[in-house]
Amino acid sequence: MDQAKTNEMDPDEVDRIIAEELQRLLESPMFTRSPVLSRLLQFLVEHRLRGGRSAPKAYAIATEALGRSEDFDPAVDSYPRVMVGRLRTLLDRYYAETPWIHRLRVPQGSYEVVVQHRSSPPAARGTEGLDDGDDVKTAAAAMGGDAVPPTAASSGGGRFGRWIVALLLLALAFLALWALRGEALRLLGRDPVPEPLLEISAPESGNLPESRALARALDGRLRDGLRRFDLIDLLAANAMGDAAPRTADYRLDTSLVRTVDGVVDVTLVLNRVADQRAIWSQQLRLDHFDTPEFTAVEPVIAQLGGDYGVIVRDQIRRQPDNYAPGYPCLAQFNRLRQMRDPATAKRVDGCLRATIEANPRDPVALAALSLVRFGDWQPQRRTPAGREAFVEARALALRAYRENPNASAGQFAMARAHFYAGDCAGGIAMGDSARALNPFDADMAGFLGLFKVACDRAQEGEELLRRSLALDPSNPGVPAVALAFILSQRGEQAEAQAILDRMPSPTNLEPQYLMVRAVVLARQGEVEAARALWRRLLDHTRQPAEASPEQVLGRFMITPTVIARASAALRQSGVVGPPAG
Q1: Please, which residues have CB within 8 angstroms of residue 424's CB and are 6 or more apart in sequence?
Q2: If DSSP codes are grouped into helix, strand and coil, which group holds residue 77?
Q3: Is the pLDDT of residue 152 over 80?
Q4: List of residues 6+ apart from 469 with CB closer than 8 A
Q5: What are the tens digits of pLDDT across the range 350-372?
Q6: Which of 147, 157, 462, 532 is 20 to 30 A from 305, comparing alpha carbons?
Q7: Which stretch of DSSP H or E encloses residue 252?
Q8: Three-state secondary-structure class, residue 531
Q9: pLDDT confidence of 504, banded at 50, 70, 90?
Q10: Within 147-265, where are the H helices?
Q11: Could you tell me whether strands 233-235 and 197-200 are parallel, antiparallel, or unpaired per DSSP bridges?
Q12: Average pLDDT score over the chain
C-alpha cells in the first residue's frame, strides 16, 4: 500500500530521499522543459531541507521562486496557487511514467513537499498483469506467428523457448535499427542537451528608495518576459539553501541610473560565463512614460530569448555543426528556417526525431518537426510523398498541443496546422491564444500576422507584422517581406523598398524576398532589374523560363490566396507577361 506519511522514517533519511528525488526530477527531460516549475520545486524542497517548520507562504513563493516583485499581493493574485497546481500535475505525469519506491508530492491545499513511499515499484507500463507465458505469447504474436500455448511456456522447455524468442526479438531490433539508418540512427539513444541556463543578476541601482523600486520593476519585467521562451532556462540570481546550484551558461547584468530630471538610463550586458566574455550589450534612455512598466525593454527580451536571438546565434557560432538531440538540434532548426537547403533539412529532421525518441512529450521538438514536415509538403503537395508529409505534420502538431495545451509552442503548432488546412477561424483562435502566452515572441507575431493577412484580417495582420519587426529587426525574414508586399500593394513603394533594403544576408536570398523586390522595382519603373530578379527566382526554384507565377510561387508558398495575390501583382507590375491563352 502506498503511504504519504514519513513519521516512522528517520528524518535524515527522509531529507536524503527528498534531495535525491529533487536531483532526478530536475535532470529529467520533463522538468528541463519546464524551467519555471523546476525553480518552484527546487524552492519548495530547499525550504523543507533548511528546516522550515511550516509550508512557505504564497508571498515567499511568488517573490523568491517565481520572480514577482516585492509589491506582490497574494490576496488579489492567485499566481502561486496556480503554479503549484501545475507542479502537482507535472509530478504526477513524471511518476506515472517512472517506476518508483519513493516519490515527492505536494498535497492539495498545501505548499509543503512530502515523501510518498511504497513497498516495491510497479511493473513497467505495458507488462502489468502478464506472466512469463503471456510475455512469450505476446512476442510470438508480434512476430506474426501463432501464439505459444501456456503449457509450453511453463514446461521444462520454457527456458529454451524464451531464449529463441529473445534471439528473434534481438534480430528484429537490429533490422529495425538498420531500417532507421541515417541521422536519426546515429543520434538515437543520446540524451537530449538541455537549454542554456541564463542567470539574471539583481540590477545595480544605488540606495535611493525610488531607484531600488525601479530596479525591482526592471528585474521583474525581464524575468517575466524571458521565462516565456522555450530556448533558454531561467535561473534565480541567488541559489537558495545548501544544495549546489547548477552553473549558468550566460549571465545578464543590468544597471539603472536615475537622473535628477527623472530620466532613467538602463545598461544591459550579456556575458558568456565560461570565458567571462561580454557578447552583447545595449543601453536605453527612458523617460517617465516608460517607467515603471519598462515596455521599452520588450525588444531586449525578444532579442535575447527568441528563436533567432543572441543566445541561439552565439551557440551556433561556436558549434556550427552540432546537431545533437535537444537544444543544439533546435538551434539548428531555427537556422534552417532562415536558409533552407535539403542536406541541412535532412540532418535537422533526423536530430528532431532523436530528440522526440528521447522525450516523446516534448512540445517544442514536436512543433519543430511538424514545421519541417510542412516544409517537405510545400513543394510536392500534389504527390503521394507530399500528402504523407502533410498528414504527419498535422499529427505532430496535434501531439505537440496535446502534450502541453498550455505551451505556446503546441498552441502555435496547431494554429499553423489549421491555417495550412484552410481553417482561418481555428487558426486565428489558436494563434491569438499562443501569442497571449508569449507576447514577446517576434517570430510568432510575424507569422500570425502573415496568416491573418491571408485570412482577410489585413489591419490586424499588418499590426502584428510591424510588432514583429519592432521586437527584433535583426532577423526579419518572411514578416518583413510580407509587410513590404502589403505596402507595395497600397502604392507605398519607398517604404516597401526601405524595409527590403534593411534585410540582412542570408535572409535577402530567400525566394519570397526576390519575388517582392521584383514587384517593388517594377512598380518604380525598373522593369529590367525586376525581370532579372525573376530569372534568379526561376533558377532558385529550378523552374523553366515559361513557368507561370502560380507554378513558381507554389514551390515555396502554401496559402492559395497569397499565391493568387502575388501572381496578380507580378503580372500587373510587368515582371511577367499575362497568362497564356
Answers
A1: 418, 451, 454, 455, 456
A2: coil
A3: no
A4: 442, 446, 476, 479, 480, 483, 499
A5: 999 999 999 999 999 999 999 99
A6: 462
A7: strand 250-258
A8: helix
A9: confident
A10: 150-154, 158-179, 183-187, 209-226
A11: parallel
A12: 81
Cell of 222: 525581464
User: HSE (CB half, 13 Å, CA atoms) of 492?
Assistant: 11
Tell me the backbone φ, ψ of residue 200, rounded to 5 degrees.
Answer: -105, 110
Can you give the pTM of this predicted structure?
0.65
Ranking 155-164, 220-229, 484-493 by mean pLDDT, the lowest is 155-164
299 pLDDT band, cuts 50/70/90, is very high
Residues listed for the chain = 581
Cα–Cα distance for residue pair 68/83, rounded to 1 Å: 13
More reliable by pLDDT, 504 or 400: 400
Q: What is the pLDDT of residues 92-141, one digit of tens each?
A: 888 888 878 888 989 888 888 888 876 444 444 333 333 333 332 222 23
Which sign does the torsion angle of CA 94, 100, 103, 108 carry? positive
Whole-Å CA distances, 327 to 71, 138, 314, 505, 530: 35, 37, 13, 24, 41
Strand partners, 198: 234, 250
Q: In terms of Cα–Cα distance, which of 335, 357, 359 is closest to 347?
A: 335
Collapsing DSSP to helix, strand or coil, 365 comes out as helix
Q: Cα(496)–Cα(499) distance, rounded to whole angstroms? A: 5
